[in-house]
Amino acid sequence: MASRHRLLVLAVIVLLLASAAPPQVAADTDVDSGLAALLSSGVAVQAIATGGSHTCALTIAGGAKCWGRNDFGQLGDGSTTNRSEPVDVAGLTSGVAAIAAGGSHTCAVTTGGSLLCWGDNVRGQLGDGTTTDRSEPVYVTNLSSGVAAVTCGYQHTCARTTAGGAKCWGYNSLGQLGNGTTTSRLTPVDVTGLTSGVASLSAGYSHTCAVTTGGAAKCWGGGGHGELGDGTSGLDADKTTPVDVSGLGSGVAAVSAGGYHTCALTTGGGIKCWGLNNYGQLGDWTTTRRVTPVDSQGVESGMAAVTAG
User: Fold this and answer.
1) What is the pTM of this model?
2) Which candidate among 85, 106, 251, 272 keeps its CA 20 to 30 Å from the CA of 245?
């Protein structure tokens, strides 16, 4: 969502890998103070999630910490006060298995398989059956158990169940929930055709993508810029149910949905991207929009992960 934000997170990961001892961070106006505080605190971190203007970390001890903008309560500390240093998420100082951050909301999966969300809820993206913003975590309706993973888009959220099904909720103006409608939902609904066999999910600004256990990539929702990868773009390209990504019926290890583009990691370690390319975000040495996947140059092999901003 913000390239500088994501680059700073990458810097954190590099520094964490570079030293077993707590790294020392020099004062620098270009370095986010929350990231600097995290690095210098000595808290061991296993994952970081970036939202629109906030960041969250999952500690090795299983706690959730967040910092940054907090006007909707997206930091989960019971306030709407912006924080320049990490604060504990209320009730989640342990027992957290995964965390994800969206536009102005955040969600976490517990080690017991329950799902909690907090922050902006104007479109029902917290999944608690209301449109009330929450400054502390609330349980997602009907997902108090059996959740394996969560992904947060701008104003929608999706979860993968332990049974391999995909469920989504929140804003649905372009079909990003994948249930065959454009009606926003305050509680989870099944994604059409994906009630089982889902290996991973990724929610973007207004579209969502999945990788099946068979290694196929599927996307749904907003497709005006070709971000669904099915060969279409423009006003009639939105899809309310999953469509196959062209040429990626197998061999996909992971997918990441960004603002208006999408990228996939192949089982061979290569990166393929599609969608809006006005800033060269597809990595194909052009600024030409692509409605089907193209190889990102220089990363055709040897890659372990991919993320789209």
Assistant:
1) 0.90
2) 106
